[in-house]
Amino acid sequence: MWKDLVALWKLTKIYLKGKAGAILLGLFTSIIFSLTGLATPYITRFLIDVIFHANRGDLLLPLLIICGIILIILFFTGLISDYVLVNAFERAKLLMRHDLFRRLQKASVDFLSMQRSGELNYRIFGDTEAIQGFFNQLLIALPIDLLFIVVISSIMTNWNLRMALFVLAVLCLQVLVIIGFQKPLLAYALFQKGKAQFLSGFVVERFRNIQLTRTLNTEAVEADAFKSYLEELMGINVKAFMFRKFSELSVVLINNIWSFGILWYGGRLVLTGQITLGTLMAFLLIAGMLYPRIASVVGSVFSFQDVRVSLYRFLEYHQVMPAVHESPEAVELSLKEGRVVFENVWFGYKPGEPVLKGLSVTLEPRKITAVVGRSGVGKSTLARLLVRLYDPWEGRILIDGIDIRQVTLESLRGNVRYVVQGEFLFSGTIWDNICYGAGSCSKEEIIAAARMANAYDFIMQLPQGFYTRLGEGGLQLSSGEAQRVALARLFLINPKIVILDEPTSFLDPETENAIYQAIMDLKETATVIVIAHRPSTVKIADHIFVLDNGIVVEQGMHDELLGKRGIYAAIYTELYAHRYNL
Ligand code: ADP
Questions:
Q1: Dist. CA 66–CA 71, nearest whole Å
Q2: I want to staple 477 with a disulfide (CB 3.0 to 4.6 A). Which of 78, 88, 292, 481 is the partner?
Q3: Is residue 379 within 6 Å of ligand 1 at its C-beta?
Q4: pLDDT at residue 14, as a whole number
């Protein structure tokens, strides 16, 4: 509990940094606001005891003026405190969300792909909301509530000790009842939350796999399962609602006990002349103000249980390690030639299961190098290491003689572009998609890139050309078209080192030739690496190396390698047979 409070306090210091002035102003105005609210019982007492009882009609107008002033103070302090506090806490929420987003961007791909659907969303939005709410509770509501409990108790004690003790005793009973109800209420709330989250994940997943559901003819089974989950949730909802109602009514009941008690006991005191009628009325009013404060403190303590869950979840993401570390002395990568050297590289995804086992290879600038190997041999792994999605266990990767761990990630990824197969397009226009990652781009540049990728003609045939929207609510491109848009994106950036994971996998032979030509042009200024899955792709390569069992087993030119009748020849024949169904 204390550990969590300390953790929360640390977050407060991080995300509310520089907001101490605003928080103090908010706290101060909130206290004035609440104190002003305490005037009502005093005014009532004054009205009854002095104006009515002592017949001082002349004081009615001054009282009215005081009431007016109080209203004005209430209005402005309420407004100011809300304004400064909402601003400070909303900013804290914004910073938390942004921070989490930035950290997750650096987290390993494996960690991210392991997260359940909706999880990222829930943590970035839901948990930060809960934590932000608690900042407010901890820094503003709780101190004010505690202060008021003390102030109101002393006022009551001052007015009449016995009556004050009676009110406090009944309030203690009330607190016990609230505490008694809280635990099952919390259990219900947690269950409801978990169930609702599970159900939303269920729906997303089922519709994502709708094709499978349809082809396996399991629609009815899925719908029945969904209904039974809903029924379970409904049962809990009804129970939780009734229990909540019951607890509320019980509290109201006890509330009435003390008001009747005060009336009964206080009434006798009034009749025997020990207190004035005004004091009795004021007592009733001020005692009524005590209850919400106590309920709020108890509520804060219990809501802390809930916030703890959000806190753990938030911190889990907050502390997630970046997939790769950037050295504090990292320098900008400035490419001269673009020669890439893998030097005795060992790497695997799981400890003890290396994929690359001491791989050494040199990729020459202004050449197209093809990487060939059976599926799962580690071709894409090689590309992922070059853009530092992961770091090797052992060995080094050098660009122009500089270890890539010594350069900034931004400059590395700015110079080395890895185009994955079926590269993802974003929802937005084709223009946005081509320009994505390039910073600024002119119309001429975009058109030239689209032409190079052989995408210009099909784009111009679309209803809105470059401004046609893709993705959600927009157009769905065919795989071949999407691939050409992704290639246009690449040609626009014109990077110095390029890795293409089979650039023509979704293309027909004519488009394929055009793309090959574009890649040949690209090599004039760049080091080009293609992961080849098609027999034709290897033919444009100046150099080929064959990967097997974690190392390079053969390398050379196409004809030379074919003549060796080794692994390359076997893979090539297989690819050919597969491509042309031989
Ligand atoms: P290729 O591109 O040659 O088909 P990959 O480089 O994608 O092969 O994968 C090499 C090996 O590493 C495969 O056995 C694959 O199952 C495994 N692998 C790839 N990515 C991951 C990952 N994120 N986690 C665990 N294993 C992986």
A1: 9
A2: 481
A3: yes
A4: 92
Structure confidence by residue, pLDDT tens digits, 328-370 = 899 998 888 899 999 999 999 988 999 999 999 999 999 999 9
Residue 534 · residue 517 · CB < 8 Å: no
Tell me if 2-318 shares its fold with 363-579.
no
Ligand 1 centre distance from Cα of residue 477 (Å):
28
| pTM tops 0.85, yes or no | no
Residue range 477-495: mean pLDDT, rounded: 84
Distances (CA, A) of 430 to 31, 123, 440, 444: 55, 31, 15, 15
Residue in 381, 533, 553 to alter for ligand 1 test, most ligand atoms within 8 A of Cβ: 381
Give the integer Cα–Cα distance in Å for 13 and 95.
Answer: 12
Q: Which CATH class is domain 363-579?
A: alpha beta
Most confident listed range (232-236, 299-303, 321-325): 232-236
The domain made up of 2-318 has a fold known as ABC transporter transmembrane region fold (1.20.1560)
Which residues lie closer than 8 Å to 492 by C-beta, 6 or more apart? 434, 435, 438, 441, 445, 446, 449
Query: Cβ(514)–Cβ(457) under 8 Å?
Result: no
Cα–Cα nearest to 385, from 366, 367, 365, 371:
371
Spatial distance between the Cα atoms of 8 and 131, rounded to a whole number of angstroms: 8
H-only helix segments in 272-422: 277-318, 379-386, 409-415
Task: Average the pLDDT over each of 263-277, 280-294, 296-310, 487-501 and give the range with the smallest value.
Answer: 296-310
Give the span between the Cα atoms of 304 and 138, in whole angstroms: 10
Kindly list the domain boundaries of the chain, sorted by start residue: 2-318, 363-579
State the distance from the centre of ligand 1 to the C-alpha of 118, rounded, in angstroms.
Answer: 26
- Determine if ligand 1 sits within 6 Å of the CB of residue 376: yes
With a CB cutoff of 8 Å and minimum separation 6, the contacts of 256 are none
Confidence band (pLDDT; 50, 70, 90) for 422?
A: low
Instruction: Name the residue at shortest CA distance from atom 10 of ligand 1.
Output: 378
Q: Which two tokens stand for residue 425?
A: 């397009």
